[in-house]
Amino acid sequence: LAVKYCNVMANNPAYVSALFPGLNMSQSHFDNASRTLIKQQLMKALLAHAVKGDGSSLANQPTSAEVDTALDPLFTTMDSCSSDCAKKTLTAACAASLGSAVMLIH
Q1: Taking residues 23-36, what's their average pLDDT?
Q2: CA dihedral in degrees (44, 49, 53, 56; nearest 10)?
Q3: What is d(CA 7, CA 1) in angstroms, rounded to the nearest whole number?
């Protein structure tokens, strides 16, 4: 469900603009500023929906810093795709965040 939601979002310019203001989807690979924007906006969405940044919501919940660190390799791995990298990377980062066990438990 998270992958479908995130894929629809990544393929709709209006949704991308609303969720990630200023994100340039025409670039073939996300630069550091774009990666930071994506991670910040995803964390904002998680934090707004019961996932606390300090990890105090659940006994084994990651902190926001741990989520940020976990998403970094995803961006590096997705940089090797052959086409539509921006959409694929945004979909993957979104789904990994919003489809995480922490979010599903809440």
Answers
A1: 86
A2: 180
A3: 10
Sign for the pseudo-dihedral over CA of 77, 63, 36, 38: positive
Q: Strands, E, within 29-104: which ranges?
A: none
Residue 16's alpha-carbon distances to 12, 13, 33, 86, 88, in angstroms, are 6, 5, 16, 11, 13
Question: And the tokens for 100?
Answer: 């995480």
Q: How far apart are CA 47 and CA 44, in angstroms?
A: 5
Contact 97, 9 (CB under 8 A): no
Q: What's the mean pLDDT when you consider all of the chain?
A: 79
Is the model's pTM score more than 0.85?
no
- Are 49 and 71 in contact by the 8 Å Cβ rule? The answer is no
